Amino acid sequence: MIKNNTELEYKTSLWFTEEEKENLRIDYRIKEIIYDVYSPYQHIVIADTYDFGKTLILDDAVQTTVTDGFIYNEMITHVPICAHPGPKNILIIGGGDCGAVKEIAKYPYIEKIDMVEIDEMVVAASKKYLKEIAGMKQDNRINHIFADGVKYAKECKELYDIVIVDSSDPIGPAVKLFSAEFYSNIFKILNDDGIFVCQSESPIFYTSIMKKIYKTLQSIYKDVKLYTATVPTYPGGLWSFTMASKNEISVKTDKLVEGNQYVNKEILESCFCLPEFVKKSL
Ligand code: SAM
């Protein structure tokens, strides 16, 4: 919701309010609204905020920002790549801001990256107005497929080494990206040494969603591991990712490319160390 927040008596009046939960709102002061359009799927806003820089907002939920988006994008990509013996074919479902695909493209031995995003307008807007996150050189390994990831996974005949679900929260078109049926369909399109990873919501505020994802994946895959990172603009700050594999998961730090802003070998080595309350909640 973007509004003139005069009741809060701020000097300038343009604010975006994110309704995090019933009793929690976070206000971002905005310099400028850069893009504001309704696509067939959602309300897409790109705003320049004072503290987080350019910010992608879908249906009033912050998706990524120039200031902290790299934390999420590096953790959802480099950890699974370093957990695979030699990935060549990658599937990303969602990821419309193109931050994840940009990280994967850093690995020269990856041959093919299929990105299945339901909303072409998110990709176009991110490429045009959010170049700090989406901007990259033309890369012929990347195939943009504009389709529903749920349907794609069900009908897909290809096999992938890594499948990354970089989805929005389980609302609207993303709901089925959190279902057992979808996770089983992903299992079928993964090679035997394949790795699956998804963003699995807040361990602070959405513990039940996180736990459900973890338990559902455990019922399908041989090994499931959760890891976390702090992403300041996500509800509760601490965010979770869940990885699943048909084999034992182990991360090899020597595979990590250099030049990242967040992930380094020390973070990779300890990525599956969880805070005590997160361990207990699983
Ligand atoms: N990092 C972000 C976060 O956790 O908030 C998510 C990034 S990305 C912008 C999420 C994308 O998932 C959106 O662009 C949205 O259009 C896409 N999406 C939602 N449901 C989808 C579906 N069923 N199939 C494919 N993409 C979907």
Task: Explain what this protein looks like in three dimensions.
This protein is of the alpha/beta class and 282 residues long. The chain has helices spanning 69-82, 99-104, 120-129, 131-134, 149-155, 180-188, 207-218, 265-269, 276-281; strands at 2-4, 14-21, 24-38, 43-49, 53-58, 61-65, 89-94, 112-117, 142-146, 160-166, 190-199, 223-230, 238-245. The strands form 2 sheets. It has a 7-stranded mixed sheet, sandwiched between helices. Strands 1-2-3-4-5-6 form a 6-stranded antiparallel sheet. The chain is built from 9 helices and 13 strands. The chain starts with a strand and ends with a helix. Helix 2 (99-104) links the parallel strand 7 (89-94) and strand 8. It binds S-adenosylmethionine (SAM). S-adenosylmethionine is lined by residues 58, 63-64, 72, 93-97, 116-119, 122, 148-150, 166-168, 173-174, 177, 199.
Quote the distance from N terminus to C terminus.
34 Å
Q: Strand tally, please?
A: 13
CATH topology of the largest domain: Rossmann fold
CATH class of the largest domain: Alpha Beta
CATH level-4 homologous superfamily of the largest domain: Vaccinia Virus protein VP39
Measured on Cα atoms, how large is the radius of gyration?
18 Å
Bound molecules: S-adenosylmethionine
How many domains in all? 2
Second-tier CATH architecture of the largest domain: 3-Layer(aba) Sandwich
Residue share in helix: 25-40%
Helix and strand succession?
Answer: EEEEEEHEHEHHEHEHEHEEHH
Number of helices: 9
* Percent of sequence in beta strands: 25-35%
